Give the backbone structure.
Amino acid sequence: MKKLFFLSLICLSFQMQAQFGKNLFSKDPIINLENFDKQRVHWGYFLGFSSFDFKTDYKTPNTDIDVKGNTGFNVGLVGNLRLHEYIDLRFEPGLYYASRTLTYKQFDNDRDGLREVKATYINFPLLLKFSSLRTGNVRPYLVGGVSATLNLSSNSKSKDDNLQQKFRVKPWTQNYELGFGVDLYFEYFKFSPSIRGVFGFNDELIRDNDPNSPWTGNIQSMKTRAILINFTFH
């Protein structure tokens, strides 16, 4: 899957290079899909990468946990509603595969000191897209909004906790999202690479059964942070 995805990106980059050389940097570029953005509603899909992290606050200032975000994979759909010449409302439900490595520095063995927290997210973002004036076949934009995320791997119903090597979080979280991207107009489709940050509103950690647990006892809150890199096709 990864090899196929990288191969597709390489082929697309060659096509973009040829397209840009012909239509972007020339004196009189050929305008592609001139009326595409005038549609009231249009659809698309995205593929991409992500890195999820935790922002951790402690009851007693400390650096108990070292959190490392690992690269994950994203896929989803895009629904776009035109509100104004420069403003669109977007719904981008997607599936996100993510993982984080948590290292507890007070332990000197991997059984107690290491937690691999894997997650399968279904994300439901509602976003406003603010586009600039189109120049040739290029149109930058800003995007922002709110989202609700369901974690299918939360372990929230498990009675076991970190004492049995089971790290638990709440199944639902709410976030705000901010980012930017660029619409690139080709002959037959619109391609939109973008980068976006995700910032969780609420604490999602489920504490261990022991209130003095060395894994969760000193944590005031643990909130999601993520960077999404998506490649959208319309």
